[in-house]
Amino acid sequence: MSDTTPILALDHVSKSFGRAEARVHAARSISFALHPGRTLALVGESGSGKTTAARLIMREYRPDEGRLLFRGSPVEDGPLGSLKAYRRAVQMVFQDPFSSLNPVHTVRYHLERPLQLHQPALKGAERRAAIAEVLTRVKLDPALILPKYPHELSGGQRQRISIARALAVNPEVIIADEPTSMLDVSVRLGILNLLNDMKRQLGLAVLYITHDIATARYVAEDIMVMYAGQIVEWGETESVLGNPQHPYTRLLLSAVPDPDRRLTETLFDGELSRVDVIRRQSAIDQSEVREIAANHFIRPMPA
Ligand SMILES: Nc1ncnc2c1ncn2[C@@H]1O[C@H](COP(=O)(O)OP(=O)(O)OP(=O)(O)O)[C@@H](O)[C@H]1O
């Protein structure tokens, strides 16, 4: 793991939904930290609590227990201005680029809006220059793309716009929740490469949420495995995947037919379609998973 100061950290955060017997513990005392210039992959099967973790970070949910720390200080405790700074610094890229863009607005509107909100001092010409720069970063031609509506774009272009929108306000942290799972296999690698470039060029801290160990390995220096609301294993990606300690991690890896195959091969022959991922997960014997989780210790997280 990195020894730089974390930008953002969850400190023993818990969140549950429902009451009594219907209570679901979506996050149980989870702790992790995001560092500049590094991607942390959060991997787990459907329902393990990954999106809940993202929503806690985006402050859509308040933790029942635990703290969200931004540059070492609790987010809730700061003055209003620091909350505004947090909202600018932490941006999200969603799974479905179509529903995250408003169909009645052009690309220009989608990129101008966050700048008007977060950088109101920018004059018209400066704003236009900032938008052109961010579109160039995501490898789209500003003149061609700005007047278009979401339905006039391909899935890959829409996801590039979502990334450009997140980048427009100069964020420090990107939360990417399954950003390629709804895209055609032929454009997934381009989006993953873009995330990698942004991380390196802009020193972003990235939380990459996925079902899929192969893409996690491609983008993330560090990995955490989540099961039933708990983080059961974490560490540097190569060491965790090369020598998984927790039985649940081993089970997840065993559900990938050949984890050593090159990512580009699996992406381009369509092996990583969402349907396949779900089929592989359902091939894991859930009663075995539950027994393993009940009978094995949960690895402690770093302080
Ligand atoms: N708003 C909510 N109200 C009630 N239960 C919820 C809510 N959000 C999540 N849950 C429950 O919490 C658990 C974790 O859900 P979460 O969406 O975080 O999982 P996930 O790992 O992101 O799954 P997926 O990959 O399918 O999106 C699930 O059992 C889910 O049903």
From TrEMBL:
<dbReference type="InterPro" id="IPR017871">
    <property type="entry name" value="ABC_transporter-like_CS"/>
</dbReference>
<dbReference type="Pfam" id="PF08352">
    <property type="entry name" value="oligo_HPY"/>
</dbReference>
<comment type="similarity">
    <text>Belongs to the ABC transporter superfamily.</text>
</comment>
<dbReference type="Pfam" id="PF00005">
    <property type="entry name" value="ABC_tran"/>
</dbReference>
<dbReference type="InterPro" id="IPR027417">
    <property type="entry name" value="P-loop_NTPase"/>
</dbReference>
<keyword id="KW-0813">Transport</keyword>
<protein>
    <submittedName>
        <fullName>Dipeptide/oligopeptide/nickel ABC transporter ATP-binding protein</fullName>
    </submittedName>
</protein>
<dbReference type="InterPro" id="IPR003593">
    <property type="entry name" value="AAA+_ATPase"/>
</dbReference>
<dbReference type="InterPro" id="IPR050319">
    <property type="entry name" value="ABC_transp_ATP-bind"/>
</dbReference>
<keyword id="KW-0067">ATP-binding</keyword>
<dbReference type="InterPro" id="IPR013563">
    <property type="entry name" value="Oligopep_ABC_C"/>
</dbReference>
<feature type="domain" description="ABC transporter">
    <location>
        <begin position="8"/>
        <end position="253"/>
    </location>
</feature>
<dbReference type="InterPro" id="IPR003439">
    <property type="entry name" value="ABC_transporter-like_ATP-bd"/>
</dbReference>
<dbReference type="GO" id="GO:0005524">
    <property type="term" value="F:ATP binding"/>
</dbReference>
<keyword id="KW-0547">Nucleotide-binding</keyword>
